[in-house]
Structures are given as C-alpha cells and as structure tokens.
Amino acid sequence: YDWLVGGEELRFLLEPLVAHDPRRAVLHLGVGNSPLPEDMYDAGYKLQTGVDISKAVISSMAERNSLLRPEIQWLAANCRDMTRELQNDIFPLVCDKSTLDALFCHDEHALAIVEFLKEAF
How far is CA 29 from CA 17, 67, 71, in A? Predict the structure, then answer.
C-alpha cells in the first residue's frame, strides 16, 4: 500500500541521485509495505535494503519478494539506531517516504527526528 507516489513517479528524482547507476545501494527507511523497493528493483536497482521497525511487515515483504526479487535485503530495525545492523556510509541513496512525518507525532519528536536524521545522513 502506498498513499504517496510510486516508483515510476519518483524515478526522475531518484535516478540522478545514484548517477543512473543501478549498482549503487539504496536504503529505504520505514519501508512498511511500500512497493517502491519493488519498483526500483524491477527498474534494475538490485542492491536495496528495506528497514522497518515492524518485524511482521519485514517478514511479509521478505516473503512477498523472495522469488521475484531475492536480492532485496529486509531488516527489522529501529531506523533511529542501526549501528549494530548496518555499516556506515554504504548507501549513496537513502529513501524516506513518510517516516519523518510519523516521527513528528512522537512524544519526544525533536529527539526522535535528530536521531533519525543522524542515522540517515
């Protein structure tokens, strides 16, 4: 489910950010069940990692893509602190389609947003 725009609509924005090079890695933070990683994979971007705090959604996405898109990595983790799960500086492109918006609703939103941005950049 995607309430924003899909891969086709974002392609003209995202591809220049990875120099139109499908060998560059892409990180999706708060991926949920967004089809964006799938759309990008089908467009040739095989090196992707989808991160979400929900183990259930990550399990569902891994199962949904296991046959058609086996190279996408799915990781259940808190995007505010991924130091144990991912290396620094390996993703030239980090996508966030609404995670930052959701963090504004957090009780400690200022801290949550700073932690998120620190991890993303």
Answer: 16, 22, 17
Decide: 91 and 49 in contact? Cβ < 8 Å: yes
Question: pTM (2 decimals)?
Answer: 0.88
Q: What is the pLDDT of residues 68-88, one digit of tens each?
A: 999 999 999 999 898 888 988
DSSP string for residues in the chain: --SS--HHHHHHHHHHHTTT-TTS-EEEET-TT-SHHHHHHHTT---EEEEES-HHHHHHHHHHHTTT-TT-EEEE--TT--TTTS-TT--SEEE-SSHHHHHTTSTTHHHHHHHHHHHH-
